[in-house]
Structures are given as C-alpha cells and as structure tokens.
Amino acid sequence: MGLYPEIEPYDQGMLHVGDGNHVYWEVCGNPQGKPAVMLHGGPGTGSNPYFRRYFDPAAYRVVLLDQRGCGRSTPHASAYDTDMSGNTTSHIIADLERLREHLGIGRWLVWGVSWGSVLGLRYAQTHPGAVSELVLTAVGTGANREVALMTRGLGQFYPEAFERFLAELPEGERDGNLAAAYNRVIESPDPEVRARAARAWTDWETAMTPAPPRSIPRFEDPVFRMGFARTVTHYWGNDHFLGEGNEEGVVLRDAPLLKDIPGTIVQGSLDPGNLLGTVWLLHQAWPGSELVLIDEVGHNAGAPGMVDALVAATDRYAARGV
C-alpha cells in the first residue's frame, strides 16, 4: 500500500493565538474533502511534509500545524527569552479550537504520533464534538510513570548512556524527576550550561533508538536541539500539564469518554512504552477502539508495516464521510 505521493499545501498561514504566539498552519489535499488534522510529536518537533502522505489527497482536506514554540511557529522555544508559561496542553488544545474555527471546520479526524497521540486523546476527551475519528501511533498517554520509564527505567538497558545522562545533572538532582531536573538546567542563564544539557538530553533520546545506526540527524541542528529539549522537559517535568492524578494517567482514566469516537491505534511491538502495557490498557478502556500491532517495529510511524496500517486506517475512515 505505502504512502500517497508527495503533495504541496494549497493554503497556509500564521494564526495569532494569544500570549504573543503565532502558530503556523497549512492545508493540502481536497478543499471539499473530509477534514483531518495531524498532531506531531515531541512535544516540540514540529510538523513534517512526510505526514501529508498518510492521507488520500482526493478524499481528505489535511491540516498540519507547528504547535506553540516549534517549527515555523513563533516565538521559538530555542530562544532563551521565550516565555514557556504559555505553552501547556490546555493552551495547545485551545489553539486547535481556534484553528478549526478559523478554517470553518465542524469536525475533523485527529491523527497523532507519540506526544501527538497524548494531545489527540486529551483533545477528544475535552472536545468530543469536534473529533470524528482518531488515528494514533507510537502511543503514550502522558502518565508520569511513562516519563519515569523513559528517563530512568530504561537506564538498566542502556547503562553506559544512562551514566552519561545523569552526569550532566548536579549530584543533588539525580534522584527525583529527571525531566524536571533537566528542565531546570536548560533554563539556566548560562548559555553553555543550557547547550550541554540540551545535547545530553538528545544524546539520551538517541541512545534509546532500537537499532544501529543510533543517530537522529535533526538533533545535530542546535536550534532544533535546544527547542526540542527545552519543550519536552518542560512538559515531562510538569505532569504534561494534565493535572492531579497523572501518576497512572489522567488520559487513561478518562478513556471511557471516547466511547462515541471510533479510533485506531497502530503500535510497534517493540515500542518501549509497551513495557507498561499502556496501549492494551487504553484499548480496553476505550469502547469501539481498534488495536493493530506491528511486529519487530519500535517507536517509528515510518516503518513499512506501520505505514501500511496507518494508511489503511485513514482510507477506511474516509469512506465514513464527514
């Protein structure tokens, strides 16, 4: 099956969303097609033209955006003077609603990858009337125990890299929430301290990739690296701004609220988040959801089997109409 051919947007712009923020958006495909919005990961990676190709351009009106502080949105999180207090889950959900109304869309299919799956789930739980379907991959729920797994639990599998990861933190900061500790260091007024911390954070993320060569080219861009590390530690260190009760997961707790929204979860069998059983728990708690497991794939929506399953899901939902 594979991806659809490359396509360019037919409309794009910068939406003022308040707090001095402007969010970049673009639309491609069929202007009269079924609306869909793609939510990128990170938080803080930005959108990618690659993601346009998961949708049939004849059937869908596909919206992509760069969430606050990343990609082409302004101000960028890599700039030290960018105020991160206005960058939270509730702020981004409000941005989605502003963009939906700006584009004159009633309901849209929500497609989310990694952090985008957390955001998509919470958006659907809080604005169910705006979401026609969900397609999610590399799924997490933003629970604190998921953050603990990614920042500390996996250290036993990558001990040498984990030792380097801890070494960049002051000794007194190595026993608690490591994401919060890294965020405090990244907010240092010393640019060299900030730069070393951002590099150490992305080195740890790179170390967790499942197979050689363990390299992620975008982390070699110092602007991307700083913006990404600052944003992801800001969210991971603050309960993903999901509120009280997030140890086991607010999103997972509220999964029954999705009972009227069809959804497909496409997950690699080797995704490290599976160690906590997150996707199985979500699937069981979400009436009417479909879980598709792809063997021998990790946290990678672009793997061939993952691509086929994700395109099959959007093709199937296209037939349901608007």
TrEMBL record:
<feature type="domain" description="AB hydrolase-1">
    <location>
        <begin position="37"/>
        <end position="301"/>
    </location>
</feature>
<dbReference type="InterPro" id="IPR029058">
    <property type="entry name" value="AB_hydrolase_fold"/>
</dbReference>
<keyword id="KW-0378">Hydrolase</keyword>
<feature type="active site" description="Nucleophile">
    <location>
        <position position="114"/>
    </location>
</feature>
<feature type="active site" description="Proton donor">
    <location>
        <position position="299"/>
    </location>
</feature>
<keyword id="KW-0963">Cytoplasm</keyword>
<dbReference type="InterPro" id="IPR000073">
    <property type="entry name" value="AB_hydrolase_1"/>
</dbReference>
<comment type="similarity">
    <text>Belongs to the peptidase S33 family.</text>
</comment>
<protein>
    <recommendedName>
        <fullName>Proline iminopeptidase</fullName>
        <ecNumber>3.4.11.5</ecNumber>
    </recommendedName>
</protein>
<dbReference type="InterPro" id="IPR005944">
    <property type="entry name" value="Pro_iminopeptidase"/>
</dbReference>
<dbReference type="Pfam" id="PF00561">
    <property type="entry name" value="Abhydrolase_1"/>
</dbReference>
<keyword id="KW-0031">Aminopeptidase</keyword>
<feature type="active site">
    <location>
        <position position="271"/>
    </location>
</feature>
<dbReference type="GO" id="GO:0006508">
    <property type="term" value="P:proteolysis"/>
</dbReference>
<dbReference type="GO" id="GO:0004177">
    <property type="term" value="F:aminopeptidase activity"/>
</dbReference>
<dbReference type="GO" id="GO:0005737">
    <property type="term" value="C:cytoplasm"/>
</dbReference>
<keyword id="KW-0645">Protease</keyword>
<dbReference type="InterPro" id="IPR002410">
    <property type="entry name" value="Peptidase_S33"/>
</dbReference>
